Amino acid sequence: MQIWMNGKEQDVPPELTVAELVAVKKFNVDTIIIEHNGIILTRDAWATSLLRQGDRVEIVTFVGGG
Amino acid sequence: MNAFEQALERYLKPEQLERIRKTKIGIAGGGGLGSNCAHLLIRTGFRYIRIVDFDVLDYSNLNRQFYFLGQVGSAKVAELKKNLLAINPDAIIEAIEARIEAENAAGLFADCDVVVEAFDRPEYKKMIIETYLNTGKFLVAASGLAGWGDSDRIKIHRIRDNFFIVGDLKSAIGPDCPPLAPCVQIAAAKQADLVLSYVLAGKEGVQL
User: Fold this and answer.
1) Does the beta carbon of A31 lie under 8 angstroms from any beta carbon of chain B?
2) Listed residue (B183, B5, B191) closest to B92, CA to CA
3) Closest partner residue to B122 among A42, A43, A64, by Cβ?
4) A6 Cβ under 8 Å from any chain B Cβ
């Protein structure tokens, strides 16, 4: 199925959870926050948030420096 | 009211100053972002600031942080309090020397209206954001402010009406991308301006 990830269309396996998407795309789980269809997910919701065709996912990666 | 606070009335209306003065701000980190954001807020009339940091000032911090040579070796929060009180002696600065971890993060700023994320490590940035995301507080983080050049890359990203991230979201600190005063100050200044915009905004909220 297709989803929109950070504004780009991506082909991902069906019935994927947000947690699985993070693993597939090899994000560092300790430095990201995730918005799924406009809702920011807390970490404990990643595993139960199921992606559907056409969903929008924004993954913001924090980088070091301050 | 001291002479500094009286002089602010030249620039801001009484009702604006009233809003500014009653806002309680929490700043997580007293380094490049936190120390600079704090002094900009104090100069703008904010009175209540709680700053939490565990670190001791090092010579390598002076390239971008709001401290001075004679303060090296002392706890950052204690020295920052002195520097802020040197601008406004009637400010209420709560300097808390502590490491912020997931276990204590929620309690440190529970009574603050605004939380400024001013850490350097990305894991801690994420931790403080996740802790305060659903509390209804106004939240300003920063990510991607290292290096130099093309400083317009340091943008304001509205994630929610009460959650903003300042930065280019990608310039991490590294051997070829050091944290330097100009871009760190730009990010800290944008954080401070977002706080001010939030406090002075009407029902429509922060406008970009």
Assistant:
1) yes
2) B5
3) A64
4) no
| ipTM surpasses 0.90 | no
Length of chain A: 66
Tens of pLDDT along A34-66?
Answer: 999 988 898 889 999 999 999 999 999 999 999
Please indicate whether, in this complex, the C-beta atoms of A33 and B129 are within 8 angstroms of each other: yes
Q: Tell me whether residues A66 and B29 touch, CB distance under 8 A.
A: yes
Sheet-wide strand order for A39-41: A8-11, A2-5, A56-61, A32-36, A39-41
pLDDT in tens, B98-152: 999 999 999 999 999 999 999 999 999 999 998 998 899 999 999 999 999 999 9
Residue of chain B nearest A44, judged by CA positions: B130
Side-chain-side CA neighbours of B129 within 13 Å: the count stands at 31
| B172 with A30: Cβ contact below 8 A | no
Q: Which of A32, A57, A59, A62 should one mutate to test binding to chain B, selecting the residue with the greatest count of B CBs within 10 A? A: A62
Q: Specify whether the CB–CB gap between B33 and B118 falls below 8 A.
A: yes
Q: Does the domain made of B15-204 have the CATH classification 3.40.50.720?
A: yes
